[in-house]
Amino acid sequence: MMLAHMLAEDRAAVICDFAETYHVFDIHTLPASLAATLACGLSADSRIMRKLAGVEVSPPFLLIAAAIMDELTALRYQIGADENTPKPHYLLDTILGGSTDRGAFGFDTAEEYEAARQKIIERALKNG
């Protein structure tokens, strides 16, 4: 059933994945049960598995590497920035085509922090 779903979704991706992974260039020469087993054994970064998962970045670990780089960039900016330092651009924004607003903010006093903390706690208990 999984193989049929894969073929219906993107036949070319399945053929390419079989050729790349198993060196099988004509999946129709395989017994159906073997082809289905091999299809389920394709890695998460294969073309068809990425497509079924809705992942557009190739390979998926690129998102993790970009997120790590962005966090390092943010730390470097926070540590060494002055008023003339421009806000850094983040890789995930570029890759995903949007904004990955981290929602980071600070407080000038302990009282401001405690007030914001209390609001968060109240909202969590209310939505509980």
What does this entry look like structurally?
- With 128 residues, the protein is mainly alpha-helical.
- It has two domains: 2-53, no CATH class; 61-127, no CATH class.
- 63% of the residues lie in helices and 0% in strands.
- It has six helices and no strands.
- The chain has helices at 2-22, 32-40, 47-53, 61-80, 91-96, 110-127.
- The longest helix has 21 residues, at 2-22.
- The protein is elongated, with a radius of gyration of 23 Å.
- Average pLDDT rating: 85
Q: Regions with pLDDT < 50 over 5+ consecutive residues?
A: none
Can you tell me the number of structural domains?
A: 2
What is the first-to-last residue Cα distance?
40 Å
Note the overall shape: elongated
Structural class: mainly alpha
Number of strands: 0
What's the number of helices? 6
The arrangement of helices and strands along the chain is HHHHHH
Please give the share of residues in helix: 55-70%
What oligomeric arrangement do these chains adopt?
single chain
C-alpha Rg (nearest Å): 23 Å
The share of residues in extended strands comes to under 5%
Largest pleated sheet: none
Secondary-structure map with pairings?
Blueprint: H1 2-22, H2 32-40, H3 47-53, H4 61-80, H5 91-96, H6 110-127
Helix pairs in contact: 1-2, 1-3
